[in-house]
Amino acid sequence: MNEKPLKNTLILKVDPENLEMDKITIAANVIRNGGLVAFPTETVYGLGVDALNAEAVKRMYMVKMRPLDNPTIVHVSRISDVYRLSVEVPDKAEELMKRFWPGPLTIVLKASEIVPRVTTGGLDTVGIRMPNHKVALALIDSSETPIAAPSANIAGRPSPTLAQHVIQDFYGKIDVILDAGPTRIGVESTVLDLTQTPPQILRPGGVTYEELKEVLGEVSIHPSVIAKIEVEYAHSPGMKHKHYAPKAELIVVEGDLNKIVDKIIELTEEYSKFGLKIGILATDETMHRYGKGIVKSMGSRSDLKSAAKNLFKLLREFDDENVNLILAEGLPLKGLGLAIMNRLRRASGYNIIKVE
Ligand code: TXA
Ligand code: MG
Q: What CATH number labels 249-355?
């Protein structure tokens, strides 16, 4: 197939606190006409198309180079849309929407007829969420259609938390990029499958296991969330594809914190001898302990919000600096730590060293 000519990508700066509706209208018209618009959410930037337009959704899969069996989240701005997209909305879903929407929770429900099966990756279920971002909500509203949007990165790359990341991956390939600055949360939404009993977390994210448990009582976690397993039955087909990976090799060192630091120092010494450029993904508490290597802190261990917010940006920075190997400190698998470690482990291809 011949390369299509490059598109003229329109980059529009938008301020969520002072929405300029003319810019939103331009982007909404593009969505309505089957085009591609990257837009900010509170988690990461999304690559949006009309969720009900199968041809537009196919174009999005091509541009993102996303495998066709990986379903895409459908974004809504009104709860009433959930009842169009799904014909079975259990009480639990209603409770969750009330408590966590708009916000970083995607609920997987049985899909209705109006949802093209290319949007759901061929499944009979659909993942739906209402993002907590004024620009995203205004765009969905003005488009007058639910918007299917995966994270706005080429498949396999770290998710975009800055418009600059979207520009790196998609400039000249999509119609519009709405730039509202850095995203607030930085890891993607939690994906919760409500077609199972008890509900199951398919991907940990901005809403924590602990928070869901409070509302639901019982919640299970899909085994692939923390470990590498082969996913035979595609509960979340996204699980089986390579994800979040920087170009550099990545090793995650996990266990007792002092031993983590010692191990990273030892590995840095060793690999530096081979002339490798080493990046160290550290935390505020430990970063001063490393002598060699390019050291970046994710933030404090006592509040993982900044680690979540910085993770993908730092992985891309190491790539920009042509680091050959990234050594990352492990974090506890609690609260947001579960989402961060899920991303880090997968980004490493499960290249994990345990020091107990
Ligand atoms: O925060 C987010 O969720 C961002 C922003 C843009 O909203 N979106 C995002 O989309 O991360 P994406 O496509 O990169 O990840 C969607 C995840 C995938 O792991 C996919 O497998 C899962 O959601 N998913 C979507 N629909 C599903 C369904 N019907 N059944 C199971 N998993 C589903
Ligand atoms: Mg993604």
A: 3.40.50.11030
| 92 class by beta-carbon count within 10 Å (0-12 exposed, 13-18 middle, 19+ buried) | middle
Contacts of 77 (CB under 8 A, 6+ apart): 130, 136, 137, 140, 141
From 236, 241, 336, mutation site for ligand 1 pocket: most ligand atoms within 8 A of C-beta: 236
pLDDT for 224 equals 86
Query: What is the per-residue pLDDT across 76-133, written as a single tens digit (0 to 9) for each?
Result: 999 999 999 999 999 999 999 999 999 999 999 999 999 999 999 999 999 999 999 9
Enumerate the domain spans of the chain: 10-185, 249-355
Alpha helices in 257-335 (DSSP H): 257-272, 305-320
Percent of the chain with pLDDT over 90: 90
Ligand 1 atom 27, closest CA: 127
Assigned token pair, 337: 């730590």
Closest by CA to 347, choosing from 193, 255, 228, 232, is 228
pTM exceeds cut of 0.90: yes
- The CATH number of the structural domain formed by 10-185 is 3.90.870.10
CA distance 319 to 85: 39
Nearest CA to ligand 1 atom 19: 238
What's the CA-to-centroid distance between 122 and ligand 2, angstroms?
Answer: 18
Instruction: Write the pLDDT tens digit of every residue in 286-319.
Output: 999 999 999 999 999 999 999 999 999 999 999 9
Ligand 1 interacting residues, C-beta cut-off 6 A: 41, 43-44, 46, 70-73, 104, 106, 108, 120, 123, 125-127, 131, 149-151, 188-189, 191, 202-203, 235-238
Q: pLDDT grade, residue 236 (50/70/90)?
A: low
Residues 334, 219: Cα–Cα separation, whole Å: 15
